[in-house]
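User: Look at the shape:
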Amino acid sequence: MASFLAAWRERSAWKRTRVEGQHLVKEARRILKRRGRDLSEEVVAGIKGAIADVETALAGTDQEDARRAISALDERMDQSLAGARKSTLREYSESIGVAIAIALVLRAFVVEAFQIPSGSMIPTLEVGDHIFVSKFAYGLGIPFTNVKILELNQPERGDVIVFKYPIDPSTDYIKRVVGLPGDRLEYRNKRLTINGRLVPVRQIDDYLSRERMQFSRRYIETLDGVEHEILLEDDAPAAVLPSRAAAGNCNYNMNGLACTVPPGHYFVMGDNRDNSSDSRVWGFVPDQNIVGKAFFIWLNLNELGRFGSFR
């Protein structure tokens, strides 16, 4: 057992020596590439010779010989390249800085993570779901503004989007697009009609809410070929109480509402239809308020099995 541990320690030490030597050789070559023209031929030749000695020693089996060669190269670099060598702190700082810069660019232009705070999108999205949102799905915008510099695609019926809440743009909302610009939309007796055509639904098993401990009617709704689940409550009224902003855009009665979506705007609704504050209540979503398209659930600490994609 003792001999096995000794052999294991020796292999581990030799491995660390090789990694250290390879890292030092890489650093020396990088500095020579950048600063070689500023150094004398004698200094360059000496460093190249020390690099060759390290590589020869690392290819052999004598760890002590490798350590001597590494020390010799390190000392020569300290003498000749001290101003060009990076400290360990500087290397780590630069690596962390690059990683942060990449993360910020990705967050600003490509993908951003959001957490679902409410149950308005149940059963598609549960409270506590962490999702990725593609900010590049509909175009490229200037970070922290509503200005788009490149238009790619437009939201389609059935897309789940994250957007700046029209009443308070500092708040992010997530809903499903059901009405596009120019659509004549009606929502009466809890049935959705778009441009005179009733949106098809079919009932499936009831849904049990863990938070409310009650059953809701669950349906599969199809929007332009996109199937998704929605929930309806038997005891909830068909009509909604609109805000002042929404009241001027739609016609409301006891059975629901009817409206035409204006240019550059979208009508959105939550999949948990009777427990969602959406376009029925506060009006349309301007195109410039759209942050991106939700496309992936990557974490839910309360239900790890929810990892995966959704529509």
About this structure: The chain has a mean pLDDT of 85. The helical segments are 2-35, 41-59, 63-80, 88-109, 244-247, 279-282. The longest helix spans residues 2-35.
